[in-house]
Amino acid sequence: MASPSNGALERCKSAITAATSVVGAAMLLRRVAADFLPAGTPLIGSLLLLPPPSSRRHALVIEEFDGAYYNRVFLAARAYVSTLLAAAPGVPPVIKASLPRGAGAGADQITFAMRPGTAVVDVFDGAELTWRLRSGGRHRAGQGGASGEAFRLSFDARHRDTVLGAYLPFVMARAEAMAREQRQAKLYSNEWGKWRTVRLRNASTFATLAMDAALRQDVVDDLDRFLGRKEYYERTGRAWKRGYLIHGPPGTGKSSLVAAISNHLRFDVYDLDIGNVRSNTELRKLLIRMKNRSILLVEDVDCALATAPRRGPDEGSDESSPASKNRKVTLSGLLSMVDGLWSSSGHERILIFTTNHMDRLDPALLRPGRMDMHVHMGYCGFGAFKELAATYHGVGDAHPLFPEIEALLREVDAAPAEIAGKLLATDDADAAVEMAAKLLRDRKAGVSEDGEYVKQKLHVGPRHPRARPVPASASRGVSSARRMVFDDATMRSAGVSRGQGRGTGRRGGLQLRGRGRGRR
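Above: the chain sequence. Below: its structure as tokens.
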């Protein structure tokens, strides 16, 4: 006969076994329910001992430093979260505000940041995500120890693929776009084979540029199309670059157009002085040291290459020519920079040449593929004049002097810089327009600003000849008597006719081209 103590022990064992079975079944049911039941079933969840929805969340930790370097994902997340603080409804009660160095004092320049321990909520494609900032110790690049600050991005487990596959790339792209919009362009110049930089502070934009409206829109559309054709250039196997030739008389806004292009694209400008480049090799080194998303500018390219041979001494040119010996950069070296293999050393680049005399350029520079778009900046038209008057003085379209000015601009040439100089001479709008109109009237009448009539003269008085000796190697058997070179004025004053001299006439003066030689 079993004792009472043994019966109690058996009952206890049976109870424990039953409880174990119940707990096991509950755990199995709990796991199944957690996978299949929606999150909004608190009653069933509480009966089955399910965790609250907040505990079924995944988290992604983004630390400030990745080893000895800054974590680019953290920097992008910090920039993106700053936009949430300015617009999201769930903003923490305490945030930080700062003004970047060199930025203006406007409200749009102020940036916001989270304080450690605070959180902000974002919604993306139906998923609710929480950004929380935690603080660590200080971290210095190159040293171990604390990891600095870190973001903890938490989200529901169901949205894991959405967060990793779509949300994080969206954050990176948004931060990159913000960096481009807020970035201030820089101006580089070449000295001794290296680029020196300063901040580009030219405020010229397409909205303030005095140029034909249709031409302005064509340039803007071409630039925007260039930026969005990365896949096109990759598919066609071409370098992602674009060439512009800006030509026109002095004072028509060529340099201002370059600044407007830089401000529109947020591209740095590399102002290349070919006279400071010592060889084609140095030119290639400067090219590969340029950053992507930049503009390479060569101003007055006709002057820079006035005496450049097509090839250097080692490429088959005449070594006896003084220009070949003294020239640093050859035309072939410049052409290789424009569209040779070295032009593919970077991507998203724009090449701009400016010139006052397009007819002096070598045709090899002008063909399609090198200079893709030619932009002519001409004299001021009536549309450009109205834009200048509206920009400088807020003058509308109904000024009483506008009909007269429109008629004068059809008959005389005036550079936008000249018109702008008159408009800037006074703060009175009517007086400024009157001064611009007087400039056009005087130019039509042939009267200068001091009241005297403009007299066109070919030359004033005799000029003393200045002779240049020609190297003996160039005389080809001539005696040791030195050959002298005289300019055109000397030949004319001596009564010597020239059969090969050429002249090109322009309004307001005469330009002569050609060189003469004589012996004595």
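The CA atoms of residues 160 and 371 lie 49 Å apart.
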